[in-house]
Amino acid sequence: MHDIVNLEGLGVPGVLVASTEFVAAAEAQAVALGADPAAVFVAHPIQDRTDDELRALADGAVDDILRALTAE
Question: For the whole model, what pTM was predicted?
Fold first, then answer.
């Protein structure tokens, strides 16, 4: 969250990408930082997935990420 907020502060567009386990934590951090960054959440967990499963998660999220990056 801090990285996205810092990047946005520098004028660099960004999107927070995290697993669904961290929705509440991301919302709490955003409120604490006074920020409202774009965010895309993917299925949890991440750490034990195979490379193919991670690619599938990324493929499933890329359109949402691109949409968030280009939204005005």
Answer: 0.90
The CA distance from 55 to 34, in Å, is: 33
End-to-end CA distance of the chain: 20
SS3 readout for 20-63: HHHHHHHHHHHHHHCCCCCEEEECCCCCCCCHHHHHHHHHHHHH
Inter-axis angle of helices 23-33 and 2-9, nearest 10: 40
Task: Decide if 66 contacts 12 (C-beta within 8 A).
Answer: no
pLDDT, tens only, 40-52 = 999 999 999 999 9
At residue 5, does pLDDT exceed 90? yes
Q: What's the DSSP call for residue 11?
A: T
Distance CA 34, CA 28 (A): 10
